[in-house]
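thought: fold this chain, then report.
action: predict
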Amino acid sequence: MSRKTLLTSKEIEIILHRLACQLIENHNDFSNTVLIGIQPRGTYLAQRLAKLLKNDYGINDLQLGLLDITFYRDDFRRRDEPLEATTTEIDFLIEGKNVVFIDDVLYSGRSVRSALTAIQSYGRPENIELLVLIDRRFSRHLPIQPNYRGRQVDAINEEKVVVHWKETHKKDTIYLENKQ
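observation:
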């Protein structure tokens, strides 16, 4: 197995600031916008962006939620091991709001499709956008594209994008692993 570093900690920090600035350009003061991290892997990215927007850019009235999509996935019954759901944490209304889904890697598009279905339980948003840190553009099974992307990666099917956050791995790094 070979491993190639796609993004270092410094590069990830730069990308997070760029994504935060793009969100501000499109959503101004976020009075009608909510951020929703797609559990489990979009959680760290969503929390980091929310922290940046509040601390570095002065967006004080920011609403952040975390959405569990476990039982909305089209493959949850196909797995050998039982799935473990996480907690959805949305303590605000999304009716008529602009929703920005946040996930770490956009691969097949199935997680985003599941999130689109799951969010309907919380109301009808005015608009939904997608922000991803890594866009694997040639791996899509569904016609889903991000509105905001940190980095586009051309990876073949045997390659896997692995995201390490300092909260879980002591260091921010993104790798491209090849199992051959």
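thought: worth noting. The longest helix spans residues 9-27.
final: tokens above.
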